[in-house]
Predict the 3D structure of the following.
Amino acid sequence: MSYSYKSVISETLYGRIFLAEEEKTGKRIAVKISDRKLADRRVCRYGTKVEECIKNEIRILEFINHHRDHKYSYHVIKLLKHWTHGKYYYMAMEHCDTELFKYIKKCRGGLDVPTAFYLFRQIIHGVDFMHKINVFHLDISSENILVSKDGTIKFCDFGLAMIIKTTDKMLKDVKWRRGKIMYMPPEAINGESYDPRAKDIFSCAVTFLISLTSRHCFEVAHSADKRFKIIVSGGLEKLLKAWGFLHKVPPIAISLLDGMLSYYPTRWKMDKIVKIVDSDEWNAIASQSSLYKIEKENDHQN
Ligand SMILES: Nc1ncnc2c1ncn2[C@@H]1O[C@H](COP(=O)(O)OP(=O)(O)OP(=O)(O)O)[C@@H](O)[C@H]1O
Ligand SMILES: [Mg+2]
């Protein structure tokens, strides 16, 4: 299959992501191109060789492709093909219209509440699917979640992800302290061993808060961070009140977020979170989103 390259979607540290078209079908795809020499020589900020991250991403996306019969597997970007040519590694993937971070920024003051609920439910379904097949993303952030025009969420960037067979394994090694600092749970910040499931859950909560408020509610999940300290001592409601954001976060989301942001091991587990986002109360809010209406129209047409 040959491709024609249209434009650059994003510059990455060791290459670029291109928007391309399959010449035969005209289908849009995204191609991640990484410089082999740079990848071989450099280590990323977590101490892992960049080349390892690229190979790891391919291995994990191929693994996920073997589980495409799962109901929610479409929440992970599909790897279509990968190859090396000359100086570069190539990964051809499904294309998605934008990333959640940019999507949020377009709506000043955060997404409307129903849309934030609608998208967050998909984020949870996606992470629940990954965890069920023992995949842990470990770098969940609003930049690594993509959104298509019809409002479908897809996870990308599996460079730091891991497949861990024994799900109760705790991670301790420094090189496993991965992900962006603003999305890291306290146990990872403090250099303690952490549960990979609980780390992904904490990062999802931070992402949801950003969706609702369009800002980082705290810099780092540590007692030295004033805002995080308020959440720990008085609950999220106290911080939102002080900030004038209480109206943006309905009570069901406040209790869910308090549960997801709490210290390990009292942090809520995935089963409980899934029940909340699948509840009638959640749906009553999510179904007010214009994206939900698009989904229903599409269902009707198919
Ligand atoms: N399949 C895709 N469709 C559309 N956009 C994509 C796709 N994959 C990645 N992107 C865009 O490119 C950005 C970088 O991709 P990715 O996160 O996979 O690379 P990265 O190596 O982590 O780069 P960075 O250092 O910028 O995080 C994403 O945040 C997203 O905006
Ligand atoms: Mg990324």
In short: Strands lie at 3-12, 15-22, 28-35, 79-85, 88-94, 98-99, 135-136, 145-147, 153-155, 162-163. The first helix runs from residue 36 to 41.
